[in-house]
Q: What sequence folds into this?
């Protein structure tokens, strides 16, 4: 379970990205966060694994206050939370399987991490993760020879190799064409349903959010203005999220 209790986040330049957010996300949910650029979507998900520190309030994940963690305890905590970015963040000049194997590096002895020594079990696990996202045949291809959609699937396979309880995705399909974006969203949905992994993603494509997520959170100006079932999102709701419920003026 993920809990936000009166969470606010103000950046050094004075911009208040989150304002007194209260929110609970149960294990196994598929949640899409929608809103304008700068509304606080990325900040919200990045506070969960403490990529961004909050200014006030508390973020609690499975009973652990995220802001209380330091050093090795924070690193260990982050192992349970996968993170997917728009930019894929792959090592493009090496093979797909080596990219997936990097998921094991944080928990390896220094000498294995330094020399890239992995066990048979770790290699098999990496291949299984590639199979789960449908690109096992690309295991020994260089990452820079893949399409954007295939690279995002490698990133997803790398995250699965962590054996996470939660996957956070920051605009994971923003740079993909509509057909490929749908394929990647299919992967997220299958992983959510089959593996019971919580998926929390922010997304600009409202149609994909409504099609795939069971729950939608709408953010405007750092505040949650909608939180409910995807099927209940209508034009009035979208107007509230994207225009504040106000008529546009010339």
A:
């Amino acid at each position: 379970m993920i809990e936000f209790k009166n969470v606010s986040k103000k950046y050094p330049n004075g911009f208040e990205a989150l304002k007194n957010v209260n929110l609970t996300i149960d294990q196994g949910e598929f949640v899409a966060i929608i809103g304008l650029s700068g509304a606080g979507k990325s900040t919200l998900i990045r506070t969960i694994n403490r990529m961004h520190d909050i200014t006030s309030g508390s973020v609690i994940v499975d009973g652990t206050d995220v802001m209380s963690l330091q050093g090795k305890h924070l690193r260990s905590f982050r192992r349970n939370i996968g993170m997917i970015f728009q930019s894929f963040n792959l090592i493009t000049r090496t093979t797909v399987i080596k990219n997936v194997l990097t998921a094991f590096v944080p928990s390896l002895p220094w000498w294995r991490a330094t020399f890239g020594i992995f066990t048979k079990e770790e290699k098999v696990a990496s291949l299984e993760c590639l199979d789960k996202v449908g690109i096992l045949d690309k295991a020994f291809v260089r990452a820079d020879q893949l399409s954007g959609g295939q690279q995002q699937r490698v990133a997803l396979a790398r995250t699965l190799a962590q054996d996470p309880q939660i996957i956070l995705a920051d605009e994971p399909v923003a740079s993909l064409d509509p057909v490929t974006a749908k394929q990647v969203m299919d992967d997220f949905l299958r992983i959510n349903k089959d593996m019971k992994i919580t998926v929390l993603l922010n997304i600009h494509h409202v149609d994909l959010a409504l099609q795939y997520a069971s729950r939608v959170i709408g953010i405007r100006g750092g505040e949650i203005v909608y939180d409910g079932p995807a099927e209940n999102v209508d034009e009035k709701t979208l107007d509230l999220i994207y225009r504040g419920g106000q008529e546009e003026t010339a």
